[in-house]
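Appendix B. Worked example

We walk through a single record from start to finish. Start with the input: the chain for Glycosyltransferase, Tabrizicola piscis, length 357.
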Amino acid sequence: MDIVFAGGNGYPPQAAGGVQSSTHHLARKLADTGHRPQVLAPLYGEGWFGLQARARLKLSGKGFVTDMTQGYPVHRAWFPDQVANTVVRQVQPDVAVIQCHGTVPIGRAFAAAGVPLVVYLRNVEFAELGGDIRSLHGARFIANSAFTAHRYAETFGIEATIIRPSIDRTLYETSPDGDLVTFINPVPAKGLDRAMEIAAHCPEIPFLFVESWQLSPDQRRDLAKRISGYSNIRFEPRTNDMKGLLRRTRVLLAPSRWEEAWGRVASEAHCSGIPVVGSTRGGLGEAIGPGGIALDYDAPLADWVGAVSRLWADPDHHAALSSAALKYSLRPEMDSARQFDTFLSVVEDAARLRTAA
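Next comes the structure step. The output line below is what the pipeline stores for this chain.
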């Protein structure tokens, strides 16, 4: 099948995060099994890649440009919904998998071109949908957690197949030998304030703050200023070597204040038996499970400090939760082959609509 993933989120190398990682993993699996994945994403004009793409876009005359930076075609346009019909004429997709920002207008554009829809529900930021998701008649729905599925059922009456985020274990599985408490994505929504409070009360513990969402120059300067007074906090820019990062990590810290749909960083850490101390916001507690300690974001600071300190200093406690984390990562719901089979069954079910028509 020809399958297009389309949404209003940027795509590598211009943007990175859980949505992009999960989509890329699925696209690679599709290509490995003889299908033809493609992506339609917004174009950002910044940076060398963006400047080159802008120049090519002006010359193309078709509203989007295509690159093979990810090993499969990625189409980029200023406004994906406005070029959906043109992409359909060129690609002739059997199914469009719509996700995240602009789900409704992008989905409507593909549906108007006669393409069956699968809507992948990856967050509960309903304002980002761009309309009433119930207007996408005939669409099949996938949710990335029980929490996400429940919220959409409760709010819109939508039933979704639950498929947890796909993870390529080979990119994360390692034998940790470090002593760092690692906090990935040091931005306010992900619990930056709470992480800094914990670090302030644990001066003997080395903390590593690692960029995930790309920080603007102003954000980077502000963060550098905030952590400059902490001798136990170090910052590192985003890395594609997650295995190397996890090898240095003893405890993963995820004190998110955002209503997470899932908690991909927790699942990635679990692949290496790294316990997580994180919040119960949204689906993050579901992702952590028995592989760590989940606390209410507003729990007393002493509870957060105690959870991190004990995991860092108590070998027996750490070993027990490490074992539980690794076991949790191997549960059937996180088996990538099973996840892919379920995903493919939903996509094939949607594709049958075109055949029937």
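Two observations about the output. The chain has two domains: 2-162, 169-332. The longest strand covers residues 36-42.
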